[in-house]
């Protein structure tokens, strides 16, 4: 698979990015590495955030981080090493002056950094917070379960919110530059992106609050076209669809309408589509997704299908439960949130899966039935 075209110009600035990161890292960890090794580590990091044709789990940068971790005698120092190695890449991306850095490339590179942070958190959590050997009482076990639950929730929320917050910071930087250059037309477009990312944060918070027993921030039900909901979501997902070479087919009647909580349903569709792209990453080619509408007298159905590997049978009965996932870096909250949101909207979400395709079915009761 070729590298995405929108990263070609960024890769031409490779030396500038690596040099800047190496400078930041050497200030954070003086006297630990010589310049040659530090540059090679920086090169692995730059390649990681730009080489989307290599799956994250198999990229050499993860191995480089773990090798660096082993240099330290204390685990705490090693964790700090890994943490700063990743965090300083985000700082580098913000601060290097690169006129060739497009919005699409910026968002994709930040997404890759988010994936690495999630991987690191999961690895550290498993190694540092494993149950005590003598912890055999029911009270202690229950306490550990609650602490683990809180940690997983916190990790998931941080992961989901950090990406749009990082994008907002980047857009503000670009906005300031274009205002100084009196390029108000482009500045206005950046304001649109910032507004979209704020909506994304609100959407994520709404999803987490769907687990609350109290109706916190209940969103009003509105009439909205399916096409309007999808246009917003696909405007954010298109860079990833292009990057992953996924062919998306839409079969949406112009008049298809829903009576729903807009932000909540946007999150449901966003989660389902992202999960589909994740599943298709296991295919080398011929990656296909489709979104179609079916209606009857009582319900409107949105079908989201992909031709990726089938869902493991052992997940069939629990896939919508919190913290159930077969992804190494997954939090297992996405589909659980989707289920809760759909129930809050007088609907449901189900799935079928076989060797040819996996289909998630979103069922929405029509407004006349709800009222």
Automatic annotation (TrEMBL):
It catalyses: ATP + protein L-histidine = ADP + protein N-phospho-L-histidine. Keywords: ATP-binding, Kinase, Nucleotide-binding, Phosphoprotein, Transferase, Two-component regulatory system. One of its GO terms (molecular function) is kinase activity. The keyword Oxidoreductase does not apply. Residues 156-368 form the Histidine kinase domain. It is an enzyme of class 2 (transferase). It comes from the Bacteria. PROSITE patterns: HIS_KIN. SMART domains: HATPase_c, HisKA. The keyword Transcription regulation does not apply. InterPro entries: HATPase_C_sf, HATPase_dom, His_kinase_dom, HisK_dim/P_dom, HisK_dim/P_sf, Sensor_HK_Regulatory, Sig_transdc_His_kin-like_C. Its EC number is 2.7.13.3. PANTHER family: SENSOR HISTIDINE KINASE RCSC (PTHR43711:SF26), TWO-COMPONENT HISTIDINE KINASE (PTHR43711). This is histidine kinase. It comes from Paenibacillus baimaensis. The lineage of its organism: Bacteria, Bacillati, Bacillota, Bacilli, Bacillales.
């Amino acid at each position: 698979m070729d590298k995405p075209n929108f990263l070609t110009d960024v890769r031409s600035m490779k030396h500038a990015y690596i040099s800047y990161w190496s400078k930041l890292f050497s200030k954070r960890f003086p006297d630990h590495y010589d310049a040659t090794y530090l540059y090679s580590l920086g090169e692995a990091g730059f390649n990681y955030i730009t080489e989307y044709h290599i799956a994250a789990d198999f990229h050499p940068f993860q191995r480089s981080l773990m090798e660096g971790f082993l240099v330290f005698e204390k685990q705490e120092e090693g964790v700090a090493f890994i943490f700063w190695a990743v965090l300083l890449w985000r700082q580098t991306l913000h601060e290097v002056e690169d006129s060739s850095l497009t919005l699409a490339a910026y968002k994709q590179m930040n997404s890759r950094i988010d994936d690495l942070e999630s991987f690191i958190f999961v690895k550290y959590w498993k190694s540092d917070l494993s149950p005590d050997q003598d912890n055999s009482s029911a009270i202690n076990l229950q306490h550990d379960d609650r602490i683990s639950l809180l940690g997983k929730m916190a990790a998931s929320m941080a992961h989901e919110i950090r990406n749009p917050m990082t994008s907002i910071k980047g857009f503000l930087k670009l906005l300031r530059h274009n205002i100084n250059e009196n390029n108000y037309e482009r500045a206005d477009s950046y304001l649109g992106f910032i507004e979209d990312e704020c909506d994304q944060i609100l959407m994520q918070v709404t999803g987490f609050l769907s687990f609350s027993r109290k109706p916190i921030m209940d969103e009003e039900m509105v009439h909205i076209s399916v096409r309007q909901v999808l246009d917003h979501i696909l405007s954010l997902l298109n860079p990833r669809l292009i990057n992953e070479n996924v062919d998306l087919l839409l079969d949406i009647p112009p008049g298809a309408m829903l009576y729903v909580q807009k932000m909540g349903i946007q999150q449901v569709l966003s989660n389902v589509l992202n999960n589909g792209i994740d599943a298709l990453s296991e295919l080398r080619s011929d990656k296909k997704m489709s979104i179609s509408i079916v209606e009857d007298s009582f319900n409107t159905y949105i079908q989201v299908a992909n031709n990726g590997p089938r869902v493991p049978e052992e997940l069939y009965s629990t896939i919508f439960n919190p913290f159930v996932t077969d992804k190494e870096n997954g939090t297992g909250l996405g589909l659980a949130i989707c289920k809760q949101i759909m129930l809050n909207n007088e609907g449901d979400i189900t799935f079928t899966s076989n060797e040819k395709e996996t289909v998630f079915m979103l069922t929405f009761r029509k407004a006349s039935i709800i009222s």
